[in-house]
Amino acid sequence: MQAFFDIFDIYLLEAVINGILLGGVLALLALGLNLIFGVIDVTWICYAELVMIGMYAMYFLVQYYGISYFLAAPLTILLVAVLGAALHYLVIAPLLTAPPINQLLATGGVLFVLQSFATVAFGIDFRNLGIRLPVLAFGDMNFSYARLLSFLAALVGMVAVYLFMTRTFTGTAIRAISQDRQIMALMGVDTKRIYLITSAIGGGLAGLAACLLVLQYDVHPFVGLSFGPITFLICVLGGLGNFIGGFIAAFVFAEIISLGGLFSDLEWGYVLAFAFFIVMMFIRPAGLLARRR
Amino acid sequence: MMGRGRLAAWAIGLAALVALPFVYRDPYHLHILVLILIWSFAYTSWSMMGRFGLVSLGHGGFMGIGAYVTALLWNHLGWSPWIGIPIGMVAAGALALIVGYPCFRFRITGHYFVLVTLALSGIVLQVITATRDYTGGSLGYTPNRAPGNKLFALQFDDKITWYLIALGVWLFGIVVWHWVDRSMARYALEAISEDEDAAAAAGVDVTAEKLKITLLSALMTALAGAIYCQYQMFITPDTVSGIAVSLQMVFAAIVGGLFVSLGPTFGAVITIMLAETLRIGFGTKAVGWDNLVYGVLLVLFIIFLPKGILGSLLDRLKPQRKVSRAHEQEAVQIARPGT
Lengths: 293, 339
Prior knowledge:
heterodimer, A: mainly alpha, two-stranded antiparallel ribbon, globular, B: mainly alpha
């Protein structure tokens, strides 16, 4: 038994648990993107930039207007949800019949717009909330309280989406549309409305992620680039539009990043994750849980 | 294929371009022209595969590898860019094969392909940032000034030399574009972009054809990155790699027009002139305004003019060619997922 503990080093355990905590937030990010892809069949390249706007909203609401964190969070979620709906209404809806790649590139244009908007409006300074949450000590291991809170909130958010999708009429309609978009219009489902609602939910999830990420990271106009690519990797690895696959992939990636970061810099964790991703592309090209189409 | 009149037009145009710097010497305008030529070459390289429905957002990665490998070999090992550039190109080509092979072998198309390549360019950015002890990280990197032989170091001070180099590289890109345009590979790739299964059934080696064009495109993009680095003598991860650069390539090619040889060049002229005008117009005190306008224009372009300016213009000028271009209309419907 003693030998087991010698090998099973305490830092390793700390990294593993931190990885799980990080995985919660990544899973939340991937969920929003997967939802949009699964239902509307569009990839929002600018998804991480929506999160960035949400982080700024949190910063200004809390720091500038002095609103308490727990009051600011719902406001931010609402704001980003509205942004998501607006993105769909203004950019995606006119392109619904266009080639998919044009839809994708148009959201890429929105990425530029949001980034430069943030640069113009807020400057390029790094800003943080100034909330320092205590560090939780458990034995010799340290966990950041912020991460624990994020993990729990992410789980609650995901369960809420799950319940919405399975227990409500609108949720059922959303799932039905993702299965067959032509037939559902004939069954009397207002596709346009469902798309708008889905976009709003996707935006809301980005908003929730923003509320949680702002606790751990500084916000600046290019912050989206630091976790945007990883979110796309997770979605592809899980299988685009596959919620459970995305969920698992998020935790796998978070563990790789966390454990990789244990041995070297955090960026090398990302590099390791990428190497893993390429290998997985050989083994399971259409995602972890894919059924071949 | 090319008519005598068109050939003459090309020759006259080229002669004018070569003569230009000896007549007109304004350094700022020459600088803009060199940038336009280098980026045109990069955009042309991208459109080599983009026109066949292989929409890659990983080209920022290839460009970054070309630029950084060349600069790193020069600074750390003292290897001349004449050796460094081929090595950088080979490195980018190898990466293209590593990522491309599984993608094509396992029929990863549409959104999947875009996202896989997107991740690729993001990760090249991460690696450059992570190895900051060698690459300078996000602060950027400067190749050392050559003490002796300028030609050996591929560093020139005067704009005219660079203009001619950039012109040569750009012309090389256009020639390769036409070479592919006339090759059998073009028909194979067009067939693939319309229906992979049918193409495979007709005896086209889908994986090999796609890999070839991807490799070619990646090699050329890496060359563009290296030339850009040698010209600017300063590179940052954000200017030569990453998602922003990849998107910039795709946009310029689409704005100009994917399916005509000068389309990407036209796109480069428009986007760079636009960016410069906005930058000068708004001044340095309002950083970001130029990109804001740029982004809005690009979204509008994709919604209202998806075939690009030059593509749409040519369509309007030559209505009789519409029939023969029917396949290109089809090819606009690129990257349809799950078909």
